[in-house]
Amino acid sequence: MVGSGTQEYREYLLRSAALKADLWLLDETAPTWQSPHLAGSTQVVPSDVNALVAAARSVAERRAVRGVFCYDEALILPAAQVAEALGLPGPTVTAVRNCRDKHRTRALLRDAGLPQPKFALVADLAEAAAAAEWIGYPVVVKPRGLGASRGVALVRSAADLAGLFADARSAHYPGVPTYRAGILVEEYLEGPEISVDGAVHDGEYATMFLARKEVGLSPYFEETGHLVDAGDPLLNDPALRWILARTHRALRVDHAVTHTELRLTSRGFVVIEVNGRLGGDLIPYLGKLATGIDPGLVALDVALRTPPDLTPTHARAAGIRFLYPPEHCRVDRVTVPAPDEASGLLRATALAAPGDELRLPPLDYLQRYAYVLCAADTPEGCVGRLDEAEAQVALHARPLEHVTDARRAS
């Protein structure tokens, strides 16, 4: 197992996988909360691929290693390199790079004849301005190789381009490499956003669950919520099934779990990006609550080249809502309601501690102070419960004074 993520967002996956296999963690720090789920661990810097492969070989000399398990965006490429070096199942290094490099993704999907926005890869502001004029405003600027919508912004006019381009160019994601020509300028597509978690086994793609996405903090695309409905009619849409299968073939993903983001536009479904791992933001946990499909077990089966079980055991809706401060602030305290299964509130978690400083985009991203997670029999009922739960969360904070964006000033 390469990396483990954070306990709040990923332990449920680790717990499920440990029910079916002995897991040996390769990570930079010694395990703490992970320990009950592990057979053992080795401390190694995962981004040092040579050291990581050597550590994996050392484990393989002592134990029978059957696969590589990873759900961390920053580590899926090193994990694929370990699998290739040891001759184990998993996505190829090429497939992972096809997903991680958003320009490569766009080019491969375009060449396969799949619907794509107009796009251009640019290295500086002058190239970005020329690309935006060719595409036509509004456009989206995004880093070529990051994640979690960091640095992604909607540019409505030429007057906004310089500042938002600077934001995209200076954004970073811990552990993820950047590219020399690192910014994409793309046509903005109107339409609701969805994400689909799925599994590819021996080249055959199958859907696990679908989430409806909410975004906020315009012109940025911070993800503020997700809703999974086991009965979502889009799950049976032949056009969606077709584009998902064709997309994975075009990217040469024949053995992996993936998280695909799409927009439903006037032209039909358009793929925004494909991530070579399970979704973040507890989306797979919502899927498990809504359908009974266990994403941790599915990911483990795929890692072991075992046909995954994608059979739903029940049908309901589950959703999560992330709460952001209205301005840059220093947190005094966050109060949340107690979970109450009878009312459908399954989790209410403070994400910011007293003294934390929260800075909104473009100064920082994912600066949430709390989330609430609810389930109900219907999506409408789930939204109502999320509204009620959000109203019970309180942020006590003071505005941060004299906050400037040094990146734009430089």
UniProtKB/TrEMBL annotation:
Keywords: ATP-binding, Ligase, Nucleotide-binding
Annotated coiled-coil segments of the chain: none
Record domain ATP-grasp: where: 106-304
GO molecular function: ATP binding; ligase activity; metal ion binding
Tagged with keyword Transmembrane: no
Domain of life of the organism encoding this protein: Bacteria
Pfam families: ATP-grasp_4, ATPgrasp_N, LAL_C2
PANTHER family: ATP-GRASP ENZYME FSQD, FUMIPYRROLE BIOSYNTHESIS PROTEIN C
Protein name: ATP-grasp domain-containing protein
Taxonomic source organism: Streptomyces kanamyceticus
Species classification: Bacteria, Bacillati, Actinomycetota, Actinomycetes, Kitasatosporales
